[in-house]
Design brief:
Helix content: under 10%
Strand content: over 45%
Low-confidence stretches: none
Strand order of the largest sheet: 2-3-4-9
Largest sheet: 4 strands, antiparallel
Number of strands: 11
Length: about 100
């Protein structure tokens, strides 16, 4: 399997304990930094089509701003409905203080 790492952001730009959105490869991605680790998921809720970057991050859980569905930022899984479908999560690596994502997975 070939990986295609794309430079997404400076690690310093990803706010600790908050969410930011980036556009990469035609996708809108949410970046999260929790306890010094960066995670990435699609930015659009699978239930209400809301932007997760406008929601609330509590630990490893991001809450959708429309209907309060909770997603785990580590793997995109649903922790609390009304959403039933996970959001896509993306592999992240940090290199030279830059955040890279592999969008080919």
């Amino acid at each position: 399997m070939t990986t295609n790492w794309i430079d997404a952001a400076a690690q310093a730009d990803v706010p600790e304990g908050d969410v930011m959105a980036v556009q990469l490869g035609g996708k809108e991605i949410a970046l999260y930094e929790v306890e010094g680790e960066v995670f990435a998921t699609d930015n659009i809720c699978t239930h209400g089509h809301a932007r997760l970057c406008e929601g609330f991050l509590d630990g490893h859980m991001v809450e959708c701003p429309f209907h309060q569905a909770l997603f785990n930022v580590r793997d995109g899984s649903v922790n609390c409905g009304p959403a039933t479908e996970p959001v896509k999560s993306w592999p992240v690596k940090i290199e030279n203080d830059r955040v890279y994502l592999d969008l080919t997975v």
